[in-house]
Amino acid sequence: TKTIMSQRLCLLGATGSIGTSTLDVVARHPDRYRIQALTALRDVASMTALCERFRPAIAVMADASAAAALADALGPDHPTQVQAGEAAVVEAAAYPEVDTVVAGIVGAAGLASCLAAVEAGKRVLIANKEALVVAGDLVMAAARRSGAVVLPIDSEHNGLFQCLPETAPGRAERSVNDVDRLVLTASGGPFRTRPVETLATVTVAEACAHPNWSMGRKISVDSATMMNKGLEVIEASRFFEMESERVEVVIHPQSLVHALVQYRDGSTLAQLGRPDMRTPIAAALAWPARIEAGVEGLDMTRLGQLDFEPPEPGRFPCLGLARAALESGSASTAALNAANEIAVAAFLSGEIGFHRIAPVIEATLEGMTHAPMSDLEALLSHEQSARHVAGEHVRRWRQ
Ligand code: NAD
Ligand code: MG
């Protein structure tokens, strides 16, 4: 029998949708994976249950009062050491006793810990697309310096990764030399066929009810506006170093084909699977091996029809805004992401209507100048300014 070296994991965003799917896969392979560190923002009840079940060495709550409540709930004799604060989350990502980090925090809030894991040379599985949208070039450059193996979890990017050739055997990098274009599929979300003039009155519950995927609230709203696909075009461009024109989006309502790679000889390779994040998570966790993920393969005779159509620009203005930002540069994409986070939070809290999300982002980008910038400090200060500008536009359109 072959001995498998077990991977020691740190899960950033352990209580979220990605965290939960990751732990589901991990629990199927106790010989392969050991949970070393878990982090979350403030969900004490979920974190207590995870610490009881997985007994990590460290559990971090970014929120200090939540950390105190977690320490109370676990009691003094529990093997898990509880830590508090954002700096402790970043430290956990670079913890020497960790081999593999799953970046599953939502939003630009996950950038610092994702970058710390990459700089520490970990194997880093990235779900946190906003980190790549804000500073993807810096993350990828840091990986080249440290030798970190960076793997995508976002289903489309994981599908692309699976369809692209390796640059060298055993290396995670993928070559795009012979590739004509990368194609990302999008379900079109819950409002693909809803009359556009009724989008002003959609409720939070309607926007969060995705037809095929069950996910956190922020990414669910992004899927409804299709900003999610816009962020993913930027993510693909940064991750695979492909220009905007060569990253295409096609609507595919069944969500069974996740991505396609078109080669210059006319061949197209596609990755298919059920809309279940455990598949791309397992593919990234075990890469280059394959492990059981708790997901059934497709029965081709029962798939029925697979439909593909171009997205309607009038229905999904966020897609065009994201593409324009990508073509303008890093400062624009950082500002786009910041404005989107502010607009989505304002929609989720009932401050603005769904149809105001795109205008808040557009007005924010138009009201700023986006000079070329390549260092992290400059990008972070630019994205902070974008948050302030977006907040002003939210007040203007507050209902
Ligand atoms: P979620 O809201 O369900 O979970 C977010 C997690 O991050 C939680 O554990 C939360 O405690 C933690 N968190 C939130 N804010 C934080 C902060 N400021 N500091 C520290 N921790 C914080 O989100 P999700 O749906 O799991 O998405 C996570 C990321 O993965 C997002 O970037 C999303 O775009 C991406 N993603 C998700 C899916 C999916 O199926 N859910 C698919 C593809 C990509
Ligand atoms: Mg995706």
TrEMBL record:
Task of the protein: Catalyzes the NADPH-dependent rearrangement and reduction of 1-deoxy-D-xylulose-5-phosphate (DXP) to 2-C-methyl-D-erythritol 4-phosphate (MEP).
Residues given in the record as 1-deoxy-D-xylulose 5-phosphate binding sites: K129, S155, E156, S187, H210, S223, N228, K229, E232
Claim: Magnesium is one of the keywords in the record: yes
Pathway membership, UniProt: Isoprenoid biosynthesis; isopentenyl diphosphate biosynthesis via DXP pathway; isopentenyl diphosphate from 1-deoxy-D-xylulose 5-phosphate: step 1/6
UniProt record, GO biological process: isopentenyl diphosphate biosynthetic process, methylerythritol 4-phosphate pathway involved in terpenoid biosynthetic process
Record organism: Spiribacter salinus M19-40
Protein name in UniProt: 1-deoxy-D-xylulose 5-phosphate reductoisomerase
Lineage: Bacteria, Pseudomonadati, Pseudomonadota, Gammaproteobacteria, Chromatiales
Keywords, ordered alphabetically: Isomerase, Isoprene biosynthesis, Magnesium, Manganese, Metal-binding, NADP, Oxidoreductase
Keyword Magnesium: yes
Catalysed reaction equations from the record: 2-C-methyl-D-erythritol 4-phosphate + NADP(+) = 1-deoxy-D-xylulose 5-phosphate + NADPH + H(+)
GO molecular function: 1-deoxy-D-xylulose-5-phosphate reductoisomerase activity; isomerase activity; manganese ion binding; NADPH binding
Binding of NADPH, residues: T15, G16, S17, I18, R42, N128, E130, G216
Enzyme Commission code(s) on record: 1.1.1.267
Enzyme class name: oxidoreductase
Residue ranges constituting the 1-deoxy-D-xylulose 5-phosphate reductoisomerase C-terminal domain according to the UniProt record: 150-240
NCBIfam families: Dxr, PRK12464.1
Entry's family note: Belongs to the DXR family.
Annotated DXP reductoisomerase C-terminal domain residues: 272-388
1-deoxy-D-xylulose 5-phosphate reductoisomerase N-terminal domain segment(s): 9-136
UniProt-annotated binding residues for Mn(2+): D154, E156, E232
Gene: dxr
Family annotation (InterPro entries): DXP_reductoisomerase (IPR003821), DXP_reductoisomerase_C (IPR013644), DXP_reductoisomerase_N (IPR013512), DXPR_C (IPR026877), DXPR_C_sf (IPR036169), NAD(P)-bd_dom_sf (IPR036291)
Cofactor(s) in the UniProt record: Mg(2+); Mn(2+)
Pfam families, per database record: DXP_redisom_C, DXP_reductoisom, DXPR_C
